[in-house]
TrEMBL record, chain A:
Keyword Oxidoreductase carried by entry: yes
Function of the molecule: The glycine cleavage system catalyzes the degradation of glycine. The P protein binds the alpha-amino group of glycine through its pyridoxal phosphate cofactor; CO(2) is released and the remaining methylamine moiety is then transferred to the lipoamide cofactor of the H protein.
NCBIfam families hit by this protein: PRK04366.1 (NF003346)
UniProt cross-references to InterPro entries, sorted A to Z: Aminotrans_V_dom, GcvPB, GDC-P_C, GDC_P, PyrdxlP-dep_Trfase, PyrdxlP-dep_Trfase_major, PyrdxlP-dep_Trfase_small
Residue ranges of domain Aminotransferase class V in the record: 152-271
EC number: 1.4.4.2
Organism whose genome encodes this protein: Candidatus Competibacter phosphatis
Keywords: Oxidoreductase, Pyridoxal phosphate
Family from the record: Belongs to the GcvP family. C-terminal subunit subfamily.
Region (Disordered): 445-464
Domain Glycine dehydrogenase C-terminal stretches: 347-449
Descriptive protein name: Probable glycine dehydrogenase (decarboxylating) subunit 2
Quaternary structure note: The glycine cleavage system is composed of four proteins: P, T, L and H. In this organism, the P 'protein' is a heterodimer of two subunits.
Source taxonomy: Bacteria, Pseudomonadati, Pseudomonadota, Gammaproteobacteria, Candidatus Competibacteraceae
UniProtKB/TrEMBL annotation, chain B:
NCBIfam families the UniProt entry points to: PRK00451.1
Family, as annotated: Belongs to the GcvP family. N-terminal subunit subfamily.
Keyword Protein biosynthesis in record: no
UniProt xrefs under Pfam families: GDC-P
A Gene Ontology molecular function term of the record: glycine dehydrogenase (decarboxylating) activity
EC number: 1.4.4.2
Major enzyme class: oxidoreductase
Protein name as annotated: Probable glycine dehydrogenase (decarboxylating) subunit 1
Annotated function: The glycine cleavage system catalyzes the degradation of glycine. The P protein binds the alpha-amino group of glycine through its pyridoxal phosphate cofactor; CO(2) is released and the remaining methylamine moiety is then transferred to the lipoamide cofactor of the H protein.
Subunit composition and interactions: The glycine cleavage system is composed of four proteins: P, T, L and H. In this organism, the P 'protein' is a heterodimer of two subunits.
Length: 484, 451
């Protein structure tokens, strides 16, 4: 039932303010709304009960193991939420003067410094509001760099075929064209193809490392050399930074610019799909182009750096300071981890992934890259099950929902058939991983003995599989009041 | 170890299962030259108590002045139930609803949100939100250029009376695609953008005209005439609106003869705390005919295998994870949690509650202006109706006045000098429903002392 179905004329949960009867008398009728907005009229209890019940239809990290590959669904510490919600932080107006904002600015500056250190970069801007906006910032910086040197021919961006869809989409938004680079059989970038692809038209290469195939790109030094010698730059997609945090740094690998996903690596909540935060970091060559605002420090005072301080900046990507509240949560998390804790993130996320892979292989599942060491995530392929039993990766995913596990990422990366991309994160305990293996074993047995049980899953969720064709055809995208 | 559950027995058993002698072996594929040891610039870890004390001290730096500053972010009362429910782990710690059977909560909330925004704006379709108001306008303009088949140009008419930070954000996001923003002047007496100001552009080709309501000065635009002008000249009409104001102002879908084509804006007034500028959310609504050009997530209502109603992400062929380089945008999330807050906020207020907020803001600003303009040398700059924000001329530079007010615990408004030097000593002030009569008097008394 929708909230609108519970609406009754004249009901109102909250009386937020009292205005005099003639409050709007000075507004011309031609500018006024004629009919009241079609919003629900419900009591406070009705609203609270409705949305509490809806929340219970969700899987979430707090309720379920959520091994969604490439999304780093780790525990979101409650203390980060509480401290970012302190009244002095929550009430701060974005345009409040620096003089009364030193505490807030200190947090941002210290986070900039910490991110600089863990990435091996020269400077950081925290402002992008999601990973995709961080990518946009980085690629716009590469564009601005080439233009600043009068090198207008560099309009082509190289993207491995295993890359996230955001990579090519971002390159287009920045005015580039895209050329795909194939991956070799071992899961590394095909160096021969890369050598053939680079040239005076190359603006740069976008790369995730460890890649979306769940393995570390071993030839990264050579890749960097090939691209740099051709005059291009290297963009690091920080989607998988969790795998190497405190162990290896993109700046040392030869990357020129990168983004991080604070909602992945730094444990800020995913919130049902945002808000995230995608800070961007750059080496000395690209630092002048970073988006503003950035927090600067001069003789123990913090201030915003703007267009005047940073004339080569690509500009601003939000009206104010991006998702400041998310940035504060990440800051608290980083302080809780500290120097020793950063490396533990990589160690235990990698331990969990390799353990889960080993146990699944023992259970009879096929790894996509069995000869490789897994990073913080790995791929199994269900090609065999699909062919011999008619049970697909999607069927396994849906049956996992019945058994109380969120599904891994399915059918991505595109080049591995019938794949599940599995990322357990460091915050899961061994018993949870063993439970997941047991569930996979059960589904395999069902696929062999009663495949319809798996093909028809889920059976025990609020809805069964949905008619997506109908959704796209009917385009029922909004409730509408019945005209009276 | 914070947030890591492994005992030493666990580690031993897991390494044995993997067949690795130690944790370090797991990183053997990273070339040794690229491995780093301890990173000295990182601070030592704090425990929860220590970090709490640290953050409480940092937060206390902000003295929480009495706020008359708006300029795109507005202090509104948020009913307690909003964040009590939004903060539930099932909303807070879920992700994008890729598995609809395990995400009906988030999906139905988004569908209800889309319905509420479509209703508020009077347009057929709302997406599931974008990052913030400024970036939503950038996406709206990219969308307008794609959608407008009558126009071959990538030029956009954008009023100088639009928020200056929005104009800069839009430029940063769209200029790499060759889109040109052409600034339209405002009327120095009314503070609005009169249709006559568009006359010089009549013979030229533009993809869209941006129409803010209210504009950055708080002034109400003649939206009907502007919308009709856009359509007469084969441009799309792109509305930038304040969602609170929509409770009392004509919705974009009813502007002019045909209605605006696209409406966007910042959803912050609907349940997002000020929080230093974010997270907020951007909303984006449009006529049904433009839906396939829309960026961002869309949720649709459908049925499951048993014919039961359910909700799912739809029209994903527009999006980057399917279309890659041919997607409508690179965006892959929305601001889900903030939109959940907006849905709760609008449910609790209902149509009348939102109207009461809008009316109280408007009334408070009227009283504030009456009181402040009693101060010698203080006057209104523009003579047209406003929503809940207006421009005052001061006898001294606004920066000096603001410093004096701040010393008296008042955040007095936005200094227009940098962005609009032609207005002289001008200050943008705002009084929302959270200001009481005594607050307004306190501001007037303080201003009388300083000005």
């Amino acid at each position: 039932m929708l909230i609108f179905d519970q609406s009754r004329p004249g009901r109102q949960a909250v009386i937020p303010a009292i205005a005099p009867d003639d409050a709007l008398s000075d507004l011309p009728a031609s500018l006024r709304r004629r009919r009241a907005a079609p919003l629900p009229e419900v009591s406070e209890l009705q609203a609270v009960r409705h949305y509490t019940r809806l929340s219970q239809k969700n899987f979430s990290i707090d309720t379920h193991f959520y091994p969604l590959g490439s999304c780093t669904m780790k525990y979101n510490p409650r203390v980060c939420h509480r401290l970012a919600s302190l009244p002095g932080l929550l009430a701060r107006h974005p345009l409040a003067p620096e003089g009364i904002s030193q505490g807030f600015l200190t947090c941002l500056h210290e986070l900039q410094e910490m991110l600089r250190e863990v990435t091996g970069m020269q400077a950081v801007s925290l402002t992008p509001m999601a990973g995709a906006q961080g990518e946009f910032a980085g690629m716009a910086m590469i564009r601005a760099y080439h233009v600043s040197r009068g090198d207008h021919a560099r309009r082509e961006v190289l993207v491995p075929d295993a890359a996230h869809g955001t990579n090519p989409a971002t390159a287009i938004m920045c005015g580039f064209t895209v050329r795909e680079i194939p991956t070799d059989a071992a899961g590394d970038v095909d160096l021969t193809a890369l050598r053939q692809a680079v040239g005076p038209q190359t603006a740069g290469l976008m790369l995730t490392n460890p890649s979306t195939l769940g393995v570390f790109e071993r030839n990264i030094a050579e890749i960097a050399a090939i691209v740099h010698q051709a005059g291009g730059l290297l963009y690091y997609d920080g989607a998988n930074l969790n795998a190497i945090l405190g162990k290896a740094r993109p700046g040392d690998m030869g990357f020129d610019v990168m983004h991080m996903n604070l909602h992945k690596t730094f444990a800020t909540p995913h919130g049902g799909g945002g808000p995230g935060a995608g800070p961007v970091a750059a080496n000395a060559r690209l630092a002048p182009f970073l988006p503003i605002p950035i927090v600067g420090k001069e003789s123990e005072r913090y201030r915003w750096l703007s267009e005047t301080d940073r004339p080569q900046s690509i500009g601003r990507l939000s009206a104010f300071m991006g998702n400041a509240g998310v940035i504060l949560r990440a800051y608290v998390y980083a302080r809780l981890l500290g120097r020793a804790g950063m490396g533990r993130v990589a160690e235990f996320s990698t331990l969990n992934a390799n353990y889960l892979l080993a146990e699944l292989m023992k259970t009879g599942f096929d790894a996509a890259f069995p000869q490789r060491r897994a990073s913080h995530e790995f791929i199994i392929t269900l090609k065999r099950q699909a062919k011999t039993l008619g049970v697909t990766a999607m069927d396994f995913a849906k049956r996992l929902l019945d058994l109380g596990f969120h599904a891994p990422t399915t059918y991505f990366p595109l080049l591995v058939p019938e794949c599940l991309l599995i990322e357990p994160t460091e915050t899961e305990c061994k018993e949870e991983l063993d439970g997941f293996v047991a569930a996979m074993r059960q589904i395999q047995q069902e696929a062999e003995s009663s495949p319809e049980q798996v093909q028809g899953a889920p059976h025990h969720r609020p809805v069964r599989r949905l008619d997506e064709v109908r959704a796209a055809r009917d385009m029922d995208l909004a409730w509408r009041p019945v005209e009276s | 170890m914070p947030f890591i559950p492994h005992t030493s027995d666990d580690v031993r058993a897991m390494l044995a299962a993997i067949g690795a002698p130690d944790l370090d072996t797991l990183f053997e594929e990273i070339p040794s030259a690229l491995r780093v040891g301890e990173l000295p610039a990182l601070p030592e870890a704090l425990n929860e108590l220590q970090v709490t004390r640290l953050m409480e001290a940092r937060a206390a730096d902000y003295p929480r002045p009495l706020c008359f500053l708006g300029a795109g972010a507005y202090e509104h009362h948020i009913p307690a139930a909003v964040w009590e429910i939004v903060g539930r782990g099932e909303f807070y710690s879920a992700y994008t609803p890729y598995q609809p059977e395990a995400s009906q909560g988030t999906l139905q909330v988004l569908y209800e949100y889309q319905s509420m925004m479509a209703g508020l704006t009077g347009l057929a379709v709302s997406n599931a939100s974008l990052y913030d108001g400024a970036s939503a306008l950038a996406e709206a303009l990219l969308m307008a250029v794609r959608a407008n088949r009558k126009s071959k140009s990538k030029r956009i008419l954008i009023p100088r009376a639009l928020h200056p930070l929005y104009r800069r954000t839009v430029h940063a996001i769209v200029h790499n695609q060759g889109i040109e923003l052409v600034e339209v002047p405002y009327d120095p007496t009314g503070g609005h953008t009169p249709v006559e100001a568009l006359a010089p552009y009549a013979g030229q080709d533009f993809a869209a005209l941006v129409i803010p309501q209210p504009n950055f000065f708080g002034v109400l635009e003649e939206v009907d005439a502007l919308t009709d002008w856009a359509h007469q000249h084969n441009a799309l009409a792109v509305a930038v609106v304040n969602p609170t104001a929509l409770a009392i102002l004509k919705p974009p879908g009813e502007w002019g003869d045909a209605g605006a084509d696209i409406a966007c804006g910042d959803g912050q007034p609907l349940g997002s705390p000020l929080s230093s500028g974010g997270p907020y959310f951007g909303f984006l609504c449009c006529r049904r005919e433009w839906v396939r050009q829309m960026p961002g997530r869309l949720v649709g209502r459908t049925v499951d295998l048993d014919g039961k109603t359910g909700f799912t992400l739809t029209l994903q062929a527009r999006e980057q994870h399917i279309r890659r380089s041919k997607a409508t945008s690179n965006i892959c999330t929305n601001q889900g949690l903030m939109v959940t807050a907006a849905t709760l906020y609008l449910s609790l207020l209902g149509p009348r509650g939102l109207e009461q907020v809008a009316a109280a803001c408007h009334a408070n600003t009227r009283v504030l202006v009456e009181q402040l303009t009693q101060v010698p040398g203080v006057s209104r700059v523009f003579d047209r109706p406003v929503f809940h924000e207006t421009v005052l001329r001061l006898p001294r530079p606004a920066s000096e006045v603001l410093d004096g007010l701040l010393a008296r615990g008042i955040l007095g408004g936005f200094d227009l000098n940098d962005d609009y030097p032609e207005l002289g000593h001008a200050l943008l002030v705002c009084a929302t429903e959270t200001r009481e009569e005594a607050d307004l008097r306190r501001y007037a008394a303080a201003l009388a002392e300083i000005a």
